Amino acid sequence: YLLCLLGGLLPFARVSYAAGSGPSVPGSPSLVVYRPKFVERSTQDGAFVISTGQEAELLLYGENFTNETTLWLTNKLSCFEGEPGGELHSLGQLHVSSEDGKRAKITFPALNILGEYHFCLSDIEASQSAVLQGNGEDPTLKLVIADGGSSSESPLLPLPANIVLLLVLILLSGTFSGLNLGLMSLDPTTLKLVMESGSGRQKIYAKLIYRVRRYGNYLLCTLLLGNVLVNNTLTILLDSVLGSGLYAVIASTVAIVIFGEIVPQAICSRHALTIGAYTIWLTYIFMALTFPLSFPISLILHFILGKEIGAVYTRNELLGLLKVTEDHHGIGKDEVQIISGALKFKEKTAEDVMTNFEYVYCLDIQSVLDFRTIREIYDSGFSRIPVYEETKSNIVAGVV
User: Fold this and answer.
1) What would the pLDDT profile of 342-381 be if each residue is shown by its tens digit?
2) pTM of the model
């Protein structure tokens, strides 16, 4: 009777053993380590975390993998489907990626379960032959499924619309960055100078820009707020499109640095007047949109820093400007000397303009005004010639 009773219990004992309560059978699939193809994050003890609502792909490394091997998830230290409170979820069959059966991968749709799960492997799709992998304490053989939040929801816009919106945001980011450098470099004094002495088209451009540039703090706050708003929106949108925070940060950083900062600032630093005039309508729009925030901040800046004066040049700075821009302003050397002399005239004394006596061209009172003498006077370049008698120090008259 006892032998019959034991014989009747043997099948149940075999099922429990195969269900993962003991070591795997030699030749059966065995998982050593795994990792997600796209790692989002991990727990402090090293277990990988994936989010609900997203398709995932796992890369598996172990022994005896076949294309019929099935991967299971269990929230208990058992692969027995009838375990009280236990859950057993099939992720599907593996796709072996090496001839020796040591590498495989599996792609499975979005999961709507939460918690910490262990892996089970079976040679067939039936859960009765599934074997628990590891002892349940190794964090490298655990998978944590966390709430993905809004990632499980369908995107608000289709992919083509998101791409168009991304391009618009990158364009706006570059525009704000370029205008911030270009418009703020055109101080009111420079714009007034262009309005007075520039070409016809330059005068029109300068007049358009001056209307907003005279409110320097307000314009600065508007451009910076617009740039920050666009860049943050760009990062959030990239996160929803790429589905990974890390890739969204990398993509947004590259896009903003290259197309939102370097390229537009390089262009606007050289063509600030033209670009500022053609985009003045965009500046007006954002000045109106950001008015509730940017205008009060501009008043605070005005109160603390005072009124913006712009570029003001002293006499010495004007002289230096003439010399520095000598190769570009198209003014001849004689004209530069005349302008420089006029700027220095107020500081000149009689001693400064006097010529050393030994270098003065003089005529002896006994000189004959023949052709040769007149030629010498002409070649000397002087319009007034002193006349001396006997010695140069004895000036008795002058020739004008």
Assistant:
1) 777 777 777 777 777 777 888 888 888 888 888 888 888 7
2) 0.51
DSSP string, 211-222: HHHTSHHHHHHH
73, 118 in Cβ contact below 8 A?
yes
Q: Give the confidence band of 15 by pLDDT, cuts at 50, 70, 90.
A: very low
Whether residue 361 contacts residue 382, with contact meaning beta carbons closer than 8 Å, is answered with: yes
Whose tokens are 């896009």? That residue is 255
Judge contact between 229 and 300, C-beta under 8 A.
Answer: no
**pLDDT averaged over the chain?**
81
Residue range 243-297, pLDDT digits in tens: 666 777 888 888 889 998 999 999 998 999 999 999 999 999 999 999 999 999 9
Distance, CA of 251 to CA of 155 (rounded, Å): 19
Hey, which residues does 104 pair with through a beta bridge? 60, 96
12, exposed or middle or buried, with CB in 10 Å at 0-12, 13-18, 19+?
exposed
Residues 6+ apart with CB under 8 A from 333: none
Domain residue ranges of the chain, discontinuous segments joined by + = 16-151, 159-305, 313-347, 355-400
Determine phi and psi for 115, rounding to 5 degrees: 125, -170
- Residue ranges of alpha helices (H) inside the chain are 2-16, 159-185, 188-197, 200-213, 216-242, 245-257, 263-268, 272-278, 280-289, 291-305, 315-324, 333-344, 350-353, 371-380
CA distance 73 to 22: 17
Tens of pLDDT along 302-358? 999 887 776 777 777 777 777 777 666 667 777 777 777 777 777 777 777 777 777
Q: List Cα–Cα distances, 245 to 38, 162, 365, in angstroms.
A: 11, 17, 99
Rounded Cα–Cα distance for residues 109 and 55 (Å): 5
Tally of CA atoms within 13 A in the half-sphere of 9 that contains its CB: 6
Short-list 124, 129, 59, 141, CA closest to 96? 59
Radius of gyration of the chain (CA): 43
Q: Does domain 16-151 have CATH number 3.40.430.10?
A: no
3-class DSSP state for residue 17?
helix
Closest CA to 72 of 23, 111, 125: 125
Q: Name 36's bridge partners.
A: 58
Residue labelled with tokens 């168009």: 164
